[in-house]
Amino acid sequence: MAEDGLITVQSRFGVTETIDRLTEVVKRAGLLVFARIDHAAGARDVGASLRPTELLIFGNPRGGTPLMQDRQLAGIDLPVKALAWENEDGKIWLSYNDPRWIAERHGLGEASRAAVEAMVAGMKKVIAAAAGMDQS
């Protein structure tokens, strides 16, 4: 588990391309894209600057519902999301909440364990594909 509940991987692509790739991968996997937020554009709209930063919110009720049936408050962390961002050195990163951290945060039990583990595997797969990581 990530120390702070976040898992971050480096992307081989720019922020927009990383989120474009993630969008395509999750759609092909049968997941729904609920929203895409360009935080840098929002900053520009208020006269501020922000390095490229985009958030994608996605998921599927089949995956998240068991977590909420176990502890309804888990819905505050669902659907899942991933943030592509450029650091001060110009490197691109893709970060997301570790599903095991979500489970721990909400005290989820055996009732949702299989769904959590499916989310762990699914997130690892879609994030790796979006970031251009070797999946072997």
What tags apply to this protein structure?
single chain; 136 residues; 5 helices; five-stranded antiparallel beta sheet; alpha+beta
Describe this structure in words.
The model has no long low-confidence stretch (mean pLDDT 95). A five-stranded antiparallel β-sheet has the order 1-5-4-3-2. The longest helix has 22 residues, at 110-131. It contains five helices and five strands. Strand 4 and strand 5 form a beta hairpin. The chain is α+β, with helices and mostly antiparallel strands and 136 residues long. It is globular. The protein has helices at residues 15-28, 39-45, 61-70, 99-105, 110-131; strands at residues 6-10, 32-38, 53-59, 80-86, 92-97. It starts with 5 loop residues before the first strand and ends in a 5-residue tail after the last helix.
Helix/strand layout:
Blueprint lengths: L5 E5 L4 H14 L3 E7 H7 L7 E7 L1 H10 L9 E7 L5 E6 L1 H7 L4 H22 L5
Helix pairs in contact: 1-5, 3-5
Concise description?
The chain has helices at 15-28, 39-45, 61-70, 99-105, 110-131; strands at 6-10, 32-38, 53-59, 80-86, 92-97. It is α+β, with helices and mostly antiparallel strands and 136 residues long.
* Gap from first CA to last CA: 20 Å
User: How would you state the average pLDDT, rounded?
Assistant: 95
Helix/strand class:
alpha+beta
Tell me about the biggest sheet?
5 strands, antiparallel
Overall helicity: 40-55%
The beta-strand count equals 5
User: How much strand content do the residues show?
Assistant: 15-25%
The tally of helices reads 5
What is the helix/strand order? EHEHEHEEHH
The dominant shape is globular
Strand arrangement in the largest pleated sheet: 1-5-4-3-2
Radius of gyration (CA) equals 15 Å
Low-confidence stretches: none
